[in-house]
Please model this.
Amino acid sequence: MKILLASDCYTFQTGGVTTVVVALEKGLRAQGHEVKVLALSNTRRSYKEGDSYYIGSLPFPDYPEHRFSFRLHDPLIDELIGWDPDIIHIHTEFTVCRMAKYIAKKTDTPIVMTTHTDFEYFNFGRFRNTAFVSFLGRTWGKSVYKQAVKVVVPSEKARGFAHLQPHKDKVIVIPNGIETMHYQKKITKEEKEALLKKNGLIPNGKVLVMVTRLSKEKNVIEILRFFPALLKKIPDVQLLLVGDGPDRKKFEKFCEDNGFKDHVSFTGRVCPEDVYKYYNLGDVFVSASLFELHSMSYLEAMAAGLPLVCREDLSLRGVLEDGVNGYIYEDENGFTEGVSKLLQDPDNWEKMHCGALVQAERSDVTHFIENTAAFYASVLGESGGRAN
Model:
């Protein structure tokens, strides 16, 4: 198959969408498929690197790590039209989506789309379930997914999203996968000591790891609010926040104002290929996010052998089994108790560590690639190879 993957989020960004697109690109190519990627350049200039096509773009004024472009008439887009893909898989709903739909129209190619984001929650937070927000979501979704033959979601949680309701009959679930072996790599004792020192962590302390975007929707502030209570129980505990985002300064100030800044380390942006090194520093992975659909960082952490302590959410179904590979919490007491059970009981930690590794194997990328390739074949079979 000739497969075009389209995404606003690619090699210049970290995050779940980027991880999924890169995994698909590599895995499908390894199966013998011809794969090209349409993405945004990190400059105004369009250029090509191998089979990756980067279209010139501009940064969003308030969110410079995200970019946009209005281009449709570009030599690289014309080249992709001439390539004439068999199927187009769109992973983001904005700038590149428009370009990919333009290519599909010119080539009469079937489109499938994956939604990776809870847009109602992202834009409206706790008001997401109001009638007005649901109406907005359905109206927007009806338009944006109209050209898609099928809409993929990574978990059952996403089936109920308002923006997917106009197309609920064509929604299918394909869980994400990760390169398990990559996150099982170990660093040397010397590398670990150097990385601990670089991030201001004491060598023999207990380390909680979060790999996340530092933004409101990830609910990082809840972990920071609960952290002082945990410190009272475990004085040498430390929190390592891996990633960057628009609320980093706000979170740093919160730690300083509440007197525990010396126990929290902010790494800033980390190259995706190096994230596994930071899991090597940790004892437990924690998250308070209610924004996840099928979090890649949860899977990565388990592949690295870290038990999870996460806030109750539908996205945890099939990922975190309470008392098997970590703990699910609902309040501050649940959080501190879950972390304490792991950090203060080595035998219990070892049990959860083994449970995490077992669960991670079920999420290996090979299953994800096989399921996605079979899905493409079924779409082409149903459409006769081209969109109706």
